[in-house]
């Protein structure tokens, strides 16, 4: 019986060795073609990421420039409105008459006044 047990053990040991050898012979490696494909795909993904980030950076820069310009336009619009108010105040007929009489010493002579109509009316 002892011999039979040793034979069974040897057979099992041989089967295990054959099974191990079969696994050892199977070499899992990446081929050159797969390496080229992976490298090319990685390069394309990196290029796409760079392109997207650079576009977002350009868009952000343009948006900041537009914002600054719109703020400048609104400030200039306020300045223009205040100047229009000042023009209307300074061109009032009563003010002109007062300035002409008091400051410049002029007098109004109604017989020499000529009325000129504007073309834009």
TrEMBL record:
One of its GO terms (cellular component) is cell division site. GO terms for biological process: FtsZ-dependent cytokinesis. Belongs to the FtsL family. This is Cell division protein FtsL. The keyword Cell division applies. Essential cell division protein. Keywords: Cell cycle, Cell division, Cell membrane, Membrane, Transmembrane, Transmembrane helix.
